[in-house]
């Protein structure tokens, strides 16, 4: 044996990997042995391969899938560093969505064991309006507000309007006396499934060229259950501060998260409108439960508002208008004063206590 070659056992020990793992990595072209004895089939590794083997071990410890490790290992260190950062940003995004779901489940199961009579019943005061804007030939957005449901859908493609209205129509059952009762998470999931099917039928023939976003809040009397997919947004104004409670599912937002793009570059990126996901059977919407407090003001809007009106101005308009109706119309007017490049839809809802009822 040549002097700088190690047996698979010795190499495995030095690389903190098992011989079994090394054989798997060989089969997957992740780490080929430096030499395979043609007679015995024994694998030998060069000392110089240790660096790569240990990188593989570290990436395994991060939980990176093998196919992605193979890509990272083929890169120069600076590019590999960027790839690892991008991978981790994705893990954190997915973990955050799972954390929200876990909290939702904990809340649901905890609430099931306490008497509903103890809950102070709050109410919503609401307004929804949708406007074509000044540039688009038609309005493909749909906005809805009722005593239990707030929703905005932004349709795109040739059948964008039928798509957004089908999504909202399918959810409206939640806002009727016939609404099913029970576990809010299941209720929302079933309604979203119905909406997804309705959108699928509405865009039949247009394939992936048409569809809709969906951002909706279901009122439970003390909390709001959020379902969200796409680049429409939900905000809450609380104690004078404006907080966004949704993430944009856009290609550029994922590039920002992964450190490939700055927010400034994203604002003028040619693909800034491109959605990462929309309401389709294969995409998973974000779900979370939001505790409501008297005095909260919620805003749902399509990107026709958020792309032209910066958050501080949205906050100002929400704080300086007395009612949901005046707020909605002030926001839409501001988007149109800024050029109205897209359809713009806003839903504003105030949480009020029993004394205000
Ligand atoms: Mg839009």
Compute the CA-based radius of gyration: 26 Å
What's the overall average pLDDT, rounded? Answer: 91
Percentage of residues assigned to helices: 40-55%
What's the CATH class label of the largest domain? Alpha Beta
Q: Report the span from N to C terminus.
A: 88 Å
General description of the model:
This protein starts with a strand and ends in a 5-residue tail after the last strand. The protein is elongated, with a radius of gyration of 26 Å. The chain contains twelve helices and 14 strands. The longest helix has 35 residues. By secondary structure, it is of the alpha+beta class. The strands form three sheets. Strands 5, 6, 7, 8, 9 and 12 form a six-stranded antiparallel β-sheet that branches. A five-stranded antiparallel β-sheet has the order 4-14-13-10-11. A three-stranded antiparallel β-sheet has the order 1-3-2. Helix 3 crosses helix 4. It has two domains: 73 residues, Multidrug-efflux Transporter Regulator, Chain: A, Domain 2 (Orthogonal Bundle), CATH 1.10.1660.10; 268 residues, Phosphatase 2c, domain 1 (4-Layer Sandwich), CATH 3.60.40.10. The protein binds magnesium ion (MG). Magnesium ion binds next to helix 10.
């Amino acid at each position: 044996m040549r002097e700088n070659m190690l047996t698979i056992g010795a190499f495995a020990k030095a690389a903190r990997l098992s011989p079994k793992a090394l054989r798997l990595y060989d089969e997957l072209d992740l780490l080929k042995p430096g030499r395979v004895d043609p007679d015995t089939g024994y694998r030998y590794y060069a000392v110089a391969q240790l660096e790569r083997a240990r990188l593989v071990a570290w990436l395994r410890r991060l939980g990176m899938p093998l196919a992605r490790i193979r890509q990272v290992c083929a890169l120069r260190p600076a590019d590999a560093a960027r790839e690892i950062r991008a991978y981790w940003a994705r893990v954190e995004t997915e973990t955050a969505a799972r954390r929200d779901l876990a909290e939702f489940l904990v809340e649901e199961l905890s609430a099931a064991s306490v008497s509903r009579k103890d809950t102070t019943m709050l109410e919503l005061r609401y307004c929804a309006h949708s406007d074509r804007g000044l540039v688009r030939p038609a309005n493909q957005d749909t906005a809805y507000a009722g005593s239990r449901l707030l929703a905005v859908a932004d349709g795109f493609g040739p059948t964008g309007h039928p798509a957004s209205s089908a999504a909202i129509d399918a959810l409206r059952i939640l806002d009727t006396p016939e609404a099913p009762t029970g576990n809010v998470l299941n209720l929302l999931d079933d309604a979203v499934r119905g909406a997804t099917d309705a959108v699928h039928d509405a865009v039949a023939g247009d394939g992936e060229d048409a569809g809709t976003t969906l951002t909706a809040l279901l009122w439970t009397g003390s909390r709001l259950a959020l379902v969200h997919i796409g680049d429409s947004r939900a905000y809450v104004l609380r104690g004078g501060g404006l907080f966004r409670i949704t993430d944009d599912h856009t290609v550029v937002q994922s590039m920002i998260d992964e450190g490939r793009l700055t927010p400034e570059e994203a604002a003028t990126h040619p693909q800034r409108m491109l959605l990462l996901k929309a309401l389709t059977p294969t995409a998973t919407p974000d779900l979370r439960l939001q505790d409501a407090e008297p005095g909260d003001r919620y805003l749902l809007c399509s990107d026709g508002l958020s792309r032209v009106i910066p958050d501080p101005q949205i906050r100002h308009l929400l704080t300086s208008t007395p009612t949901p109706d005046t707020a909605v119309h002030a926001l839409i007017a501001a988007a149109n004063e800024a050029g109205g490049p897209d359809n713009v839809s806003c839903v504003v809802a105030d949480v009020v206590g029993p004394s205000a009822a």
